[in-house]
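Retro notes, structure queue

What went well: the backlog is down to a handful. What didn't: a couple of records were mislabeled last round, so from now on we paste the full input next to the output in the thread. Example, using Cof-type HAD-IIB family hydrolase from Lapidilactobacillus achengensis:
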Amino acid sequence: MATEYRGVVFFDLDGTLLNEHSQISPEVGTAIHQLRKNGYLPVINTGRSPLEIVDTCQATGIDTFVSLNGSYLEHRQRPVYQGVIETELIRGMVDLATELNDSLSFYSKDAIHAIKDDANLQASYHSIHTPVPTIEPAYYLTHEILMLLVLTTKNDQIYQERFPEFTYYRNGAYSIDTVRQGNSKMNGIIELIDRLHLTDLPTYGFGDGPNDLTMLNYVDHAVAMANGIPAAKEAAEFVTNSNRDGGIIKGLQHFDLI
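Corresponding output:
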């Protein structure tokens, strides 16, 4: 399969490939189509669910993604890897969230549900312009769960101390992406490259936030957005413009990918 491509380019979504309205601008869509035409495999690498990236895939033609912070991978509509969380661990997290009066969302490969509705749940999903999950507190008992979203503004340390089996990525003021330890955007890249036999190709990564650091530190050529956190810029080979100011296009042009 490696002979199909000249390289692999990984893109974070929020704050990176998407604009401030959580959409693909026409210019970025054109750039990604040109990237593919030039022989490169574009890959979405995101904390979002597959349900939340359908429009992005349609606008860009991207058919390969690492989602849920490395916990679910897909290539050409076929699953490549799944990092399932044990039911008993989830039960413990549900009990702790209930004790702390927090909400918690469950992510399977094709659904999102929460244990209760509250202000943090509403604010978190509204901030990324996606539907608020329906309430199904027992959903995890009958489905394979790949990621949790902890809805809290203040209890980070309590979760980390009580459940060190997880890796936590705060993604905003209201919520924390939570995956089984060992899963990450970097691990998603490793799994994808190995399973698609792309090991001899150069890799590029675009990102801006805390959950992008493993990706930026792993790829051959790391690009941080101007709107990114300082640690992302420190990890980058090149700092491009912001996601609102042609940063994707400038970064691709810098490496002669388009």
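Agreed that this is the format going forward. Reviewer comment attached to the example: The mean pLDDT is 96.
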